[in-house]
Design goal:
Number of strands: 0
Number of domains: 2
Structural class: mainly alpha
Amino acid sequence: MKLYLLQISLWIVYGFIHSALASPKVKHIFEQKLGRLFRYYRLLYNVLAVGLLIGLLWYQRLLPKERLWAAEWWVGGLAITLFWIGVLIALKALLGYDLGEFLGVPNPPTSPTSSEFRTGGLLRYVRHPLYTGTILAVWGLFFNEATLQTLIMAVCITVYIRIGIVYEERKLVREFGDTYVEYRRRVAMLFPKLF
């Protein structure tokens, strides 16, 4: 049980570090300290986030693997379908971003800023398609493995994303004002409205 409590704690710490380093206040502090080198902040942030995530997933793989239920062919089929739908949605969502900016690769000084409000592609159906894909993929992994550690991972990631959306949307309302408020009213957060 202690191993799983440690896993939960590590996910909480990961989420805190990830969010804290993305907060405007912390970024402002680093901007003052780094000066011109601040343009590499997003790149370093992503490298740190991926490195910590790999370490966390490695620890998670070391935990005992006891299935929560017997493997059924239809659950495995559902799990794989859910996982790959999630991966494809996430990849499609990533293609809607300026990947250089997203990854933190500094743009040349002559390139335009990407602070325009976009609603094309998957953003017509959900406000956060990258998160939708991530949630589907991690729950697909859980249903495929059906272990306590993948359940903990899926719950932690889902809760973190849901909390993160609140803060991200506050930032988007500050940046885009009524345009984003109207968009938020019309378009579902994570899963398309059926009616």
